[in-house]
Structures are given as structure tokens and as C-alpha cells.
Amino acid sequence: MKSLKNLAEACPEEQSRFFSSFDHFLTDMDGVIWINYKPLPGAVEFINSLKKQGKKIRYITNNGLASVGSIWNVLKKNKFDAEIDDLATPITSGIAYLKQENIKKSIFAVGTKEFKEELRKAGLKVYPDPPQEIDEAIPSLLEHLRDDENVGAVFFNFDPNLTFVKMQKMATFLKRDDCHYITGPGDKYIPAGPLGPIIGNYHNIRCLDEISGRKSTPIAKPSQFFADSITERFGISDPKRVLFVGDSIPEDMNMAATAGFQKLLVLTGLASIQDVRCWQYPEEYKPEYYVESLDVLNNILKSLNVQRETSSN
């Protein structure tokens, strides 16, 4: 088993080789560059410095709550030098899947208003939402068990207003084999600072799988579809020249391994130093290096830049 090295403890020559080894810098967002949309120390300066040095910076998130435009606006507000096309989310990959499969019928989309509006903007039909509350009686419940063959796909994204009726309607539509079943993020936990973590959608998806007897097509991290989607979206020709930075071993390091990217683990989100010291995940998920934070990575980069300037004078 290979050891997992702390990049901050490597010699300058090794650190320099590390930064020279990638052209694309793909970063997870929650737990890496910010917590609850508040940038972590050093993140803005580091990422903007990398971009000035010619690295292609891309933002990868399992945030299925907000539209791409909303996330981009937060990036701009926090002074990240980013373009809207630099983002990839479960919504962008879900749209890519639905268009790839040429879904003409309505999509029963379970998620936020922004998520459903993104589907509409992409030219997809969105099935009307069921009522948020129903009469607490059997006849009212049975009314929502009826199928509708106008539904061609169920897209189960993260939904803070998930209800029993929504779950039941998804299970009803999925009785038909011709109804596509795709799922957004399946994280068990979502970083949210001291008050968190937020409960992820993992157990809800497993419940629907069991009730419906169907196996979903996941389109968020760490799925193969998401890995292929971002590779195509960002025009990546050599995955070995890509560095993926994340805070989650099961999602981020897993997906980077799936895509064939280099991996870097940071400890500002879900992963801890205990995970590093007592590795209990598949060996292929293990990155060569970890750092405590992007602030540490920023200090390494600044130190290397000073050394270069000194040696050139």
C-alpha cells in the first residue's frame, strides 16, 4: 500500500513538480473553496493565482439546489475569477443525460424551483408538482397513486421539501420500464460548518430503489456519467494532466479515480486527518498527496514563486 504524503512536508523540488504536473485544476466547492458560500482562507487568492499562471480552473459541485447562474454569481461576489461555463453541476449533467436520451415526454423533477427552471430553460418539459399538503385520508392518498404515461423520466435531485406524496408518485411512475430514472447527488452528508452536516439524499434514493425495484442512473459525483460529462464539457484530452481537488473520499477521490484524474485531498470538509492515517477506503481512491487546506496550498505556491523570482535575479 502506498503512503499518503502531506504536500506541505515535501521538498520544494517535489512541490514544483506537483504544480507542473497538471494543466486543468478541477475543484470541488463545498468544503474546499467555501463553507455555506463563505470562502475559506486563501481559497480566492490561490485559485486566482493559478489562473494567472495559465492553469484552466473549473468548478465541480454536487450542489443540486441552486442554478448554475446562482452559483456563478456567488463566485463573482466572492472575487473568484470564473466564467459561467467553468461550472459543472448535477443539473448540467442531468440535462446532458436527458438530451442524450432524447426524452420528449415530461420530466417528473423532484428538487428546488431553480433546478426545475433550469430544466425548462434547456427546453425540457417539467411535470406539475403535486400539492405540498393533502387531506390526511386514504381517498386523497389514492388519488396520487395514478400513473400518467406522459411522464418519460423521473429526475430525483436534492429536495429540502421532499414529501411522502412526491416519493409515492416517483414510485408509481417508475413501475413502467420505459420511464427513465436518474438521480442527482447521493451524498450521505453535506458539509455545513459547525451546525452540520446536512443529511444527504443517499437514504432517500436507496428507499426509492427498493420500493420501485429499479436501479437509478446516477448523474452526479462520483458517477461514471458525471466523470464523462465533465471530461467532454471541458474539452479534456489527457486526464493525467488534470488535478481534481476534493474534501470527500467516497465522492471526490472516487470520481477522480473513475475519470483517471490526479487527486488531491483537503481536510477542510468531510475528510479528516484520521481518514488519512487510518485509510479504510479502496486503494484506487487514495491520492498521492493531501493538504490541510487551500490556504496551505496557497502558501506553498507563493513560496515557490518567490524562489523562482530569486533564482532568476
Automatic annotation (TrEMBL):
Divalent metal ions. Mg(2+) is the most effective. It comes from the Eukaryota. GO terms for molecular function: metal ion binding; phosphatase activity. The keyword Magnesium applies. Transmembrane segments: none annotated. The keyword Endoplasmic reticulum does not apply. Substrate binds at K221. Mg(2+) binds at D28, D30, D247. GO terms for cellular component: cytoplasm. The active site is at D28 (nucleophile), D30 (proton donor). Belongs to the HAD-like hydrolase superfamily. This is 4-nitrophenylphosphatase.
